[in-house]
């Protein structure tokens, strides 16, 4: 029987794969950000995706002294967006250097009945080399909009590009599993070919 330690917070068995990747970028101005990517494999008639959350830094932190404190990020008010197969292809184009930004700086748009979300990913050269990821969410009821931002370093972008590219088959087709199937017709045909060539 499984113990609680053998199951994650959603109740799924642990040990099969690690579906979440996070980046934390705090700074002394308190304007840093954090990024979370969570893989959702395709299954049955449900398309796969990567759920992305961007959280702004909400506390600077101070590691000096006897009681150090650490930077914190506002996960409660993070902007969450679902990246489907097409969205991920556009992101990979930027990380691979095929273009400098998503859709020539127009970004990706997601519309729901409650809000409009825009995702921007740009390659930066100055003042630093890396990638700027910004997410804007504007409620349809005219309420206050939200903005999340994080700078992804050049080195992180290499790894993130590989991670997304490696997950694309799972997003498209799900997690492969061995399915029992009848091979007797194939085996009989192969036997017939062998017997014909031996004759």
Describe the protein.
This protein is α+β, with helices and mostly antiparallel strands and 199 residues long. It has one domain: Transcriptional Coactivator Pc4, Chain A (Transcriptional Co-activator pc4, Chain A), CATH 2.30.31.10. The strands form two sheets. Strands 1, 2, 3, 4 and 5 form a five-stranded antiparallel beta sheet that branches. Strands 6-7-8-9 form a four-stranded antiparallel beta sheet. A hairpin with an 8-residue loop joins β2 and β3. α1 runs antiparallel to α2. The longest helix has 20 residues. The protein is elongated. The N terminus is likely disordered.
CATH architecture annotation = Roll
User: Would you tell me which CATH topology applies?
Assistant: Transcriptional Co-activator pc4, Chain A
Number of domains: 1
The biggest sheet, with number of strands, parallel, antiparallel or mixed sense and barrel status, is: 5 strands, antiparallel
CATH superfamily: Transcriptional Coactivator Pc4, Chain A
What's the short version?
The chain has a single domain, classed as Roll (Transcriptional Co-activator pc4, Chain A).
Task: Describe the protein's topology.
Layout: E1 20-25, E2 33-40, E3 49-59, E4 72-73, E5 79-83, H1 85-95, E6 108-111, E7 115-124, E8 130-139, E9 146-153, H2 154-173, H3 184-198
Antiparallel strand pairs: 1-2, 2-3, 3-4, 3-5, 6-7, 7-8, 8-9
Helix pairs in contact: 1-2
